[in-house]
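Let's inspect a concrete specimen:
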Amino acid sequence: MHTVTNGRPKPAALALLAGERPRNVGWLQAAGLLFGDWGACRLYVLGLALFFAGRSCFWLILLMSGLIMAVGWAYTQICRIYPDGGGVYTAAKSRSRTLAVVGALLLFADYTVTASLSSLDAFHYFGLGAAQSQQVDESAPPKLDPATRPETVKVEIATDKYDTRPNVDAATDLTPHRESPPSAKEKLLSWRSPGLWAIAAIMLIGLFNLMGPKHTGGFALAAAVGMVFITLLITAFALPQVPWHDLPQRIPPLSQTLKHGPGRLWVSFVSIVLALSGVEAIANLTGVMKKPVAHTARKAIWVVATEVAVFNVLLALFMLAIFPLNRDAHLADMAAFLSGHYVGAWGEWAVRIIGGILLLSATNTALTDMISVQYLMARDGELPQVMTALNRFGVPWMPAVVAASVPILVLLISHDLDSLAALYAIGVIGAVAINVTLCSLHPRLRRMHRKVPMMMLGFVLLAIWVTLAFTKLHALIFVTVVMIIGLVARQITKYLATRKGERPSLLRQAIMEQLEPADLSKRRVLLGTYGSDVLAPAALAEAKRNDAALVVCFIRQVSLSYKYDEGSFTLDTDIAALKTFARFLDMGHDIDVPVIPVYDTGSDAAVLLAENAATFGCERVLIGTSRQGALYHLIKGHFQTRLEALLPPDIPVQVIAPTAPPPAQAA
């Protein structure tokens, strides 16, 4: 129960329904929160790209940056279409509840591997691991004079499958099916095992999350500042040291890379596509962004997407400028290696400490997101209701336990970076592909110059997802297990709900909870609305003066030249109606006025209002407008005349003007 300023406890369903957070996140804060998720990908993407593609990885990273910009544009449209929360679950729910659950489970899989991979890589950055200690002491190549040309340095080209000798340079071959060298697969039960420490960290973070997500936004913003610091530090020291005239010899030409064939190029590109991780964060932020949401989201997305795309390419150039460069030695800590090479020992350890903290922050964010996904599905009746039970700190305790347990289980099975990266990509790409593809069909996208690119991008992302499923068998098994468990839990929930009877929606629960038997015998006045709550304070005050219940009649007026299916709009599926009724119910509760929501669709609003006024026995009909203009008032006056002609003489029409919110609500 939630208590408001009038001292009355707010019913649980109404508290959930009306729990709208304040819109106080500007574009700069939104960009920081997005960058904290999206920008941290470079801590492991650079090393993975070199691991899979050697010196040919530059062209794949360049292509990846183009995809980042395309997906960034797509999410500017998604945030415009869904200004109240446009995650894949919300986007898919309007099309299909089953598809929404599939999207949510893909996000759950993504967050699971995010927590596992981020915590594991954090301890690689902290210097743990047997292979890591060898790399720090032995395998870092000597710093070369910028004027030294590669042909004057005696090096070897790796001929074995794995060769971690310090004077072995990365080849240019594409090997997208590589796995970590056997020497890098540390034993889990070892004090220097990053996997063991990652499990301990997740346990500790999970315990903290049971006490509530404290200062999550602050952690994300700190992560963004730290990532910017790391990037600028490496860039500032690397720019004057890079032998730019030698780069054409150290990066294979595009024509040579294309000789590997389209199939191998595509699979290699898919292997590093996890650089898209974190993009869904902006869609989930729209519910707290300052209006206009589309403008706020667009500025935040373009700033972050441009930074991620440009600096990923720039850091790739810094990486490939090093000669010799071992493709196996720094899979898990490439950013630290670059800082050590260009900045020095103090720079390397600064990046190791900051990078490790950033990755642990990403782990915390992933766990809180996993809790939110489970709670949201349980609240919608897609998972067992036990998942909505809150502890004394207001945290859903069962989702919190699951959120910490599943990443630990993943780390017990797999604790090397490249395997986790494959699991990671299949979840995030699936969620982003569903969101982009569904939004390409949304009527608000309207113009073809938006629809066609969005649809094409959706097909590309779906192709990437299918490729991952066929080429990364363990990733397919992982996401299949998540899907099976989630969908089976959903079916059990639906079966139990059927046996107990159909569970009413959250809106219907809120309506029933706030109406007492005595309220149904009160006098009634009716207010007609098309979705605006600007007249709510005046209408509720009028009902309060007359000790009456307020019948709020939401009219979905559909004027078409052909017959349409009225069932496509209902009280539970019309988002505008749900938001309007939630606002009226919340304000009515604050000033002790019972609210009776009524939903109707048709082509003539005047007839619908008159019919509902008679059906509910209303003694007065309230109408009004906050708009200005002679033409509008002329049309409005005609509407009032028609409505008065349709109503019985004893039911007058009263025009009301907008007023300030009542004191309880304003407080």
